[in-house]
Amino acid sequence: MGATTTPDGRALTPKGQATRARILEHAANLIYAHGVHATNNEQLRRAAGVSGSQLNHYFPTKESLVLAVIEWQADRVLTFLRGAEFNGFDSLDAFRRWAASYVDRERSYREGCSLGSLASEILKTDLDVHDELAAAFETWRTVFRDGIRQMQRSGRMSADADAEQLADLVLAAFQGGMLLAQVARDVAPLRAALQAALDHLEMFATTG
Question: Residue 6: its pLDDT value, please?
Fold first, then answer.
């Protein structure tokens, strides 16, 4: 269900959109802190400052809420990836700038990956939202893949490079490195994982 409509398909007013967005932000924070199962309507109602009827109006079931949180988190990630700073990931420097935005901040391991953390929580549940979660990661992966293909078209990367595989590698290095960094409470594992992935990507660079 889109962010501009209610579950029954009616258009939201600007005020309604703002209320829905506030509920989603607090829901995402609560799920990150406590998990899906431990997050209940009462907690969310208090945190977002809404009534029970308002909450049920926008999200009549827990599944509808979790689906919306997935979409909200995925949109945040996509907005960041599509920022002008990374220019469509059409160069190795763009990938390096993206990696640096995490490894140059010691607190990044404390914040973690919002989408990755959400995924780890959802996978523990029996909610039927796995396809939507997979689609969110596929969108992220596609941004990397399309950037690599653009480098190939511009002659800056070998045509022999497997763009699908390399995109998987970079995304997996980030997710795995972030998890290890959180466990170690040190950004070093994330830095090492991303450096290794980008070094491998650079092996396919050309002088074209």
Answer: 60
Q: Tell me: pLDDT of 77 over 70.
A: yes
Residue pair 109/61 in contact by the 8 Å Cβ criterion = no
Concatenated DSSP letters of the chain: --TTB-TTSPBPPHHHHHHHHHHHHHHHHHHHHH-TTT--HHHHHHHHT--HHHHHHH-SSHHHHHHHHHHHHHHHHHHHHTSTTTGGG-SHHHHHHHHHHHHT-TTHHHH--HHHHHHHHHTTS--S-HHHHHHHHHHHHHHHHHHHHHHHHTTSB-TTS-HHHHHHHHHHHHHHHHHHHHHHTSSHHHHHHHHHHHHHHHTTB---
Hey, which residues does 157 pair with through a beta bridge?
A: 205
The per-residue pLDDT for 120 is: 83
pLDDT: is 129 or 10 the higher one?
Answer: 129
Structure pTM?
0.85
* pLDDT tens for each residue of 82-104: 999 999 999 999 999 999 999 98
